[in-house]
Amino acid sequence: MTTVDAHRFRAVMAAVCAPVTVVTTTAADGPRGATVSSFTSLSLDPPLVSVAFDRRSALLAEILAAGRFGVNLLGQGQDDLAVRFATRGADRFGGETAWFTDEGLPRLRDAAGWVACDLDRTVEAGDHLLLFGLVTALGRAELPPLVYAHRTFGTHSRYAERPRPRITDQIAACAR
């Protein structure tokens, strides 16, 4: 078995553009959450997503106990939330964090997207645990996404230039 230098592996993976999310759950004594960049859609039928957590994560233990979690997809300009939820000891749900309960889970106000999940299964993956979430509710706002690459926050560079359907196309799609 070939071993790869961990520092080199981390440096190469830093170039991979990743969505920035805050994963949340509810514990007996209140809301919990942490910044997570290892989020992806997994299946359409049934609707599944995946998130990965270091096995030592306190939030992981809370999610396993609750059996549910929410994924807040952050939007451009929400770097402060990403940093707050990544900082140990920070008052994540206090003062400056606007949030509310949705589907029994903490949801961040003004996030670009929201996915509520029941924990479907877990898969051991090295020093992490991969969680599969069965999507039970979701929503999205028309906001550019916050992404992370090369150890910095940004957004999709051509988001504002993308073609948008005319309002009549949107109304017709809703009528189907």
From TrEMBL:
InterPro entries, per the entry: Flavin_Rdtase-like_dom, NADH-dep_flavin_reductase, Split_barrel_FMN-bd
Assigned keywords, A-Z: Oxidoreductase
Gene Ontology terms, MF aspect: FMN binding; riboflavin reductase (NADPH) activity
Occurrences of domain Flavin reductase like (ranges): 13-155
Gene3D superfamilies noted in UniProt: Electron Transport, Fmn-binding Protein, Chain A
Keyword Oxidoreductase assigned: yes
PANTHER family: FLAVIN REDUCTASE (PTHR30466), FLAVIN-DEPENDENT MONOOXYGENASE, REDUCTASE SUBUNIT HSAB (PTHR30466:SF11)
Protein known as: Flavin reductase
Naturally occurring in which organism (per UniProt): Amycolatopsis eburnea
Organism lineage: Bacteria, Bacillati, Actinomycetota, Actinomycetes, Pseudonocardiales
